[in-house]
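Researcher: Quick test of sequence recovery. Tokens follow.
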């Protein structure tokens, strides 16, 4: 997801907000997905003007202790990428951006799509991510547990995600 993804995540670590007890269903028509978030997500986007040009969209939410995010990239139509290399690049760019240590990585199938799951740690967070490709669009789902362990709500978050194609 390039540099914007980890910068947005890091900025979210420091914001304070009010939190509802009940999670909300969030739907992105543009992103063609729905997911449960603990609070109304903040939206961020970025556009690259260098080859390959791309647009990144991110939706970030925080509960009392943990972070949750969904993002995707739309590349220019002439750009052809290898699915496996794209999955690995998203993982590697995120790790580099947070200066994290990779704990686990494995190829997965997520909701019927080819994907990659990984976990990482930093001094402050334990991260779990699932990256997968739908057509020409890479998606990344991410949870950050602030207690140095996986978020107790990560399964709720991941299981709630659905593509609406």
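Model:
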């Amino acid at each position: 997801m390039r540099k914007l993804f980890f910068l947005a995540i890091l900025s979210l670590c420091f914001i304070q907000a009010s939190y509802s007890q009940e999670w909300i269903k969030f739907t992105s028509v543009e992103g063609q997905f729905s997911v449960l978030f603990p609070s109304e997500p903040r939206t961020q986007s970025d556009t690259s003007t260098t080859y390959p040009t791309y647009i990144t969209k991110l939706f970030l939410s925080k509960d009392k202790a943990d972070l949750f995010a969904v993002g995707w990239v739309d590349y220019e139509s002439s750009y052809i990428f290898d699915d496996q290399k794209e999955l690995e690049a998203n993982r590697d760019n995120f790790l580099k951006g947070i200066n994290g240590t990779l704990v686990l990585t494995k190829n997965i199938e997520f909701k019927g799509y080819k994907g990659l799951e990984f976990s990482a740690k930093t001094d402050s967070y334990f991260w779990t991510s699932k990256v997968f490709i739908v057509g020409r669009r890479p998606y990344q789902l991410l949870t950050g547990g602030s207690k140095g362990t996986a978020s107790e709500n990560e399964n709720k978050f991941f299981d709630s995600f659905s593509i609406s194609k």
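The beta strands are 24-28, 33-37, 42-48, 54-62, 67-75, 101-110, 113-121, 126-134, 137-145, 162-163.
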